[in-house]
Amino acid sequence: MPGQYAAHEMLAMSEALMTKSAHIQMLNMFAQLATDTRLKSIAQKQAQAGINHYNLGVQLIQGQEQVPTMAVQYRMDTFGEPKLGLSQMGQAGQQPGNVTAPATAASPVTDKAIATTMLNLQKFGCISWMTFGLECANPKFREYLVDGANLCDKLAYEVWSYMNHQGYYQVPEMPMNAVQQFMQNYQLTPGANQMGLQ
Fold first, then answer.
1. DSSP letter string over the chain?
2. How many domains does the chain have?
3. Which positions ≥6 away from 94 have C-beta within 8 Å?
4. Residue 185 is part of a domain; what is its CATH number?
5. Which value, to the nearest 10 degrees, does the dihedral of the CA atoms of residues 167, 172, 173, 174 take?
6. Which domain of life is it from (predicted)?
7. Are 157 and 115 in contact, with CB atoms under 8 Å apart?
8. For residue 150, is it within any domain?
9. Has residue 24 been placed in a domain?
10. Would 84 be classed as within a structural domain?
């Protein structure tokens, strides 16, 4: 029989699991809609990771004593080193920085739109899971929710890496002289070694 739980913790767990269930459904739909096989694979893997994490949460709220370790293992696909800088030409001949207007009529969803939605599901999921976790006194609920935030972080980075490789998410590069000037603004604090910091 489970112990006593604060009402807000049970509500947070319910909200988190309900949202995780919706994300799993969305990821499975994205896997069907995507035309790029790599994006399909990412959506399928992320849906499976979501199912695994969801099931841990169900076991936890049902008070099962032998809930497996909280940390969901996820092997992220990466697509090489991040590409910095704006390309000379964006997708479909557009200039860098140009964003196409949203489609207002029913039309096939593009891989770029799917990836963008997947990225934002995970980015905002990370914020929500961490916020829920920080509000929990129950250590198992807290660990589960913070683990959910960490999982979202991994999933978001995987989608971002795909988008960056495809040219969907360009990252402006800072000039090296500005980087060096910025880095010189910070110095080590004296006395750090006295506290056991190296």
1. ------HHHHHHHHHHHHHHHHHHHHHHHHHHH--SHHHHHHHHHHHHHHHHHHHHHHHHHTT-TTPPPS---------SSPPBB--SS-GGGPPTT--PPPP-S--PPPHHHHHHHHHHHHHHHHHHHHHHHHT--SHHHHHHHHHHHHHHHHHHHHHHHHHHHHTSS-BPPPPHHHHHHHHTT--PPTTGGGGT--
2. 1
3. 100
4. 1.20.1260.10
5. -170
6. Bacteria
7. no
8. yes
9. yes
10. no
How far is it, in rounded angstroms, from Cα 18 to Cα 149?
Answer: 15
Tokens at residue 49, please? 């990771």
Predicted pLDDT of residue 93: 46
Would you say residue 47 lies in a domain? yes
Specify the length of the chain in residues. 198
Question: What is the C-alpha separation between 38 and 168, in angstroms, rounded?
Answer: 14
- Domain residues for the domain of 37 are 7-71+109-195
Residue 1: predicted pLDDT: 40
- The amino acid occupying position 97 is G
**pLDDT number for residue 145:** 93
pLDDT of residue 84: 75
Structure tokens at 84: 């910095």
Q: What's the average pLDDT block by block, 10 residues per block, for the chain (198 residues)?
A: 73 92 97 97 96 92 69 72 66 54 81 96 95 90 92 95 91 80 83 60
